[in-house]
Amino acid sequence: MRDAYLVGAGQSDYGAFPEESYRSLFRTAFEAATESVPNGLEPSDIDEAFVGNLGVGGRQLGLSGPAVTEHVGLGGVPCTRVENACAASGFATRQAVQAVKSGMADVVLAGGFEIMSDMSSDATKYWLGVSGETEWERLSGTTFSGVYAQMASVHMERYGTTREQLSQVAVKNHANGAKNPHAQLGFECSLEDAQSAPVVADPLNLYHCCPTSDGAACALIVSEDVVDEYTDDPIRVAGVGAGSDNVGLFQRDSYTGIPASQRAAETAYEMAGIGPDELDFAEVHDCFAIAELLAYEDLGFCETGEAGQLIESGATELGGELPVNTSGGLKSKGHPIGATGAGQVVEAFKQLTGNAGDRQVEKPARGLTHNVGGSGGASVVHIFEREERNSSRNSSGHRPRETEAETEVSAR
Amino acid sequence: MTAITGVGAYAPRFRITADAFEDAWGQFQAAGVNEKAVAAADEDALTMAYEAGTRALEAAAVDPAEIDWLAFASTTPPLAEEDLTARLGAMLEVDETATRHVFAGSTRAGTRALWAGMDALASDATTGLVVAADAPQGDPDDGVDHAAGAGAAAFVLAAEGPAKIVDRSEYAVPYPGTRFRDSGANETQGLGVTQYDRTAFTETIGGAVSGLEAEPDVEAAAIQAPDGKLPYRAAGAAGVGTDEIQAAATVHDLGDLGAASVPVSLASALEDGYGSVLAVSQGSGAGADAFLIESDGDVPTNAALEGDDPLSYAEYLRQRGVVTTGPPSGGGAYVSVPSWRRSIPQRYNLEAGRCPECGALSFPPEGACSSCGALEEYESVQLSGEGSIEAVTTISQGGAPPEFAEQQARSGDYAAAIVALETDDGSEAASIAAMGTDADPDAFSVGDRIETTIRRIYTQEGVTRYGFKVRPAE
Question: What is the nearest CA distance from B306 to chain A, expressed in angstroms?
């Protein structure tokens, strides 16, 4: 099977933009993505597009994919809208990788967008938690803050995880987001701020919850046959994995882990032929502070039950052993549902190309993105690896490509 | 002959005192009411009827399938049109072929239902269930509202039993304007012509009692109680002393229970073991029903009339929805009424399914087995309504789906849990999401024991959907 490469990625700012439409935000992301391709990429090069969108507000529920790809001039290129809740564009990225690996396309756009801020707060609430199990979970009075709070309640009870550890996630991600010009909540917060915020769903308070956001993000995935046209320093999609599960938390075997994420990570690590120890950074799905802690465990960054100690140790801070959510994460950068997964890929691209500014991880070779739909009904993990061929910059930490290809084959 | 074989009674946990009204208004217009029960935001006459009805069935130790005659009485049915006995019967697991009646429009409705039940048993019914539930409401500055309480009582009827209804009589004569509610209105009102109202009350009560074959000589008298004074004014007309009225009175602690006033007092008197009880209801219009009950003093009773959760007057207005604006408009998540109806066996009766392949329980019983993945027809298993909390949170303002915004505005933060509901023998359980009720959210923690009850879940498109919630186990 052919290899797939990430040659460009870009995003709009995340935030509340009454002057922008979903189309204009998508255009911003699309232009940023094409402009980020080192040797340039023309829209006419694109063979196929996958666009993630939940459709909050119901403004273009049907055909929302073509509605944005035609707007940016992709003129007739087949576009598929992907809906997997908050993991929509993580899965759009996976679809792009599949299209390339299958040989059906050489250049594929994977993107996503969402507008969440242009409605009354009451109307917005009707759209929160719509990806939870509707008949029982929602009608027990929960949106996702409640469902994740239930997970937190069990994690705290079973493993001694503390509110302070939840707050440390917020402090870390805000510290990173303050260094990201695209971030919606790009300010630092103190542990005291994070501890004293109003409660939303006990034990989660406002600082343990991500905001609602407008935004768009795009990534460009190409085949090994054409990658050299676009870059001299290719970033290979080394691993990809995904999983599904029951939509309602009450239907699942575990309340303290997300089996779909565990499955996605296992598949992605196996394909990449690496383990979590070999990652240099990760963008994980921190819609709520507890979600980041669960991700630490589901992705193998620590043992089950030890996520609280991991955040406390500082290992996941910028400059730590494994920086997590250098972009600020969903918490600080923002969470425009359909755009979030592609937006994580944007951060991975920036880090691996050395363009992450003040939040740059030192010479990273590999990064992981982790995008969860709902409370774990869908999850997708990508591992990106910088593959150095022609450049003498950044020469550390990666293996010859031939070896990796063999690993991949043997792993499947 | 008709007899009462089991009694159930229920009052909500919330109480507001006369003092709280006095603080708010500078006066309290319901003489003789010390405090009264207040229905929670997720309660109404139908849920209170379920609470009393299920207790009566339990007390009588009767299989709900044996009930062939069911009556629901209230001046405040949650719908003015739609036969609520269909839902009430399903909640109580009464057979679909049972005869059903709704009685409304008068505070006599509860005893009219009892009357009709006697007639039915004299005809071809074998086991009847009479349920009276009410939560009157008036304008906030009116005496009707100051007195208005909330409560329910239910009686299982059979030809023979420990409490025999030995005589009955009724009487009606026109007295317009004493207590009425216009079509479409929620608030009951009265002209407040003091002496005229008293005359209407005592004349009709006297008329009904004088129709009994013998002068009543009873230990307790359950007299209609629009407030805490009026029943005592009717002592002479009813031929009883004030001590006998006092013996059965619930108005002082629960307030005006409307159509459930005499039924709850009668339930209370039977629970207390009185041997002879006179029960006289009165309804505006005006008319009265009188019954003479002779008990062996040992009627099976399951009454939950206690309550100690105090409300301030502001909380009272919130809880009753007087100062809230209703749910926000919008769309998003949507459960159609037909979808909801399909889940009624689970919402009301906790019907789970057993996987024929691996034997694991699933709730709701649909889709592939969560244990082994088999996609087979489940074998129906009814869960017990008892279990424990597996995961829980307290939803604060802002954390609720908008469907629950009105409820939260009225009743505040609530618990939302995942609970493991157990089979009858407690050896197996199935997990399901459920809202907490009947206690502060702090009362729900991982590992705690819970039991189910039926409450209003939410109202959309004008249709209130009822289903189980959980509360701390008794």
Answer: 27
